Amino acid sequence: MADATLIEAAKKLAAARAVDEHLLPKYKYIGIGSGSTVVYVVEAIVGKGPEFYGQMTFIPTGSQSKGLIRKAGLTLCNLDERPILDGLPVALDVAFDGADEVDEELNLIKGGGACLLQEKLVAVAARKFIAVADSRKQSTRLCTKWKTIPIEVVPLAAPDVLSRLRTMGSANATIRSGLPNKAGECVTDNGMWIIDAPFPPLLLSKDLTAETEGKGMNGVWHIDLLAQELLRVPGVVEIGLFHESNGQQAASLPKELQTQKPIAAYFGMPNGEVQVQLAA
Fold first, then answer.
1. Annotated catalytic, 81?
2. pLDDT per residue as tens digits for the range 91-134
3. What protein family does this chain belong to (predicted)?
């Protein structure tokens, strides 16, 4: 088999295994992300039959996944329309989504498909988040293979956000084009624009030293410090860094339903096998 065919077959196997291991029959509310691998996630769910998924409700991360859920004949519910339980929106039992890059601590870059805000809202609403991708998305540090961080911005603020990004070390940050599908800027489902901001590979805590503080000198950042700084910029709506805690960590802290990282990532490998990366 050609490499591309092997990878697609492995992505399908990875999706099926993720669903087998993390979608329990008792679950009621399931987040469905976007991207080529999530198509196989939905396929694996449908393959279990209506007697398995018939009482489940599926929450999309954007227009693409909404169409995917509808086409599969699954019960659809928008994130803001799910039931209220004890005065709060009901938690999602699990969310499945893809990733543009995954580091060794399961931090993610997402937003290549311009759905990052809704993807993060769904991830945060879930008790556990599962990533499914192919091995090309694996990396030791973010911004190594996927060179830019997607940033969703208010269009009016875009010039000033670009200026601020350049002072932070992202000299070549640019507004994403809508081409070839449409002229002008890429417009998100929320009516916002996307800025793609390149940075040097993002540091983890183990990388920090007295000389390397990760506070932006020469554009070199620790992932958490960069995320905090980006979210302080007026006009930034959300960023494509999924970091800090996962669902298991959040449950042990007063941070339940604030998780951004997956508890596991399933990768389709070039040899047609599946590799599972678990949270430390």
1. no
2. 999 999 999 999 999 999 999 999 999 999 999 999 999 999 99
3. Belongs to the ribose 5-phosphate isomerase family.
135 plus 154 within the same structural domain: no
The model carries a pTM of: 0.95
Domain of 122?
A: 1-139+243-278
Catalytic residue among 8, 119, 152, 238: 119
Please check whether residues 166 and 254 belong to one and the same domain: no
Edge-to-edge order in the sheet of strand 241-242: 101-102, 108-109, 241-242
Could you tell me the CA-to-CA distances from 86 to 31, 89, 91, 92 in Å, in that order? 21, 8, 11, 15
Q: What is the pLDDT of residues 121-174, one digit of tens each?
A: 999 999 999 999 999 999 999 999 999 999 999 999 999 999 999 999 999 999
3-state percent helix, strand, coil for the chain, nearest multiple of 5 = 35, 25, 40
Tell me the C-alpha distance between 34 and 64, whole Å: 6
- CATH number for 161: 3.30.70.260
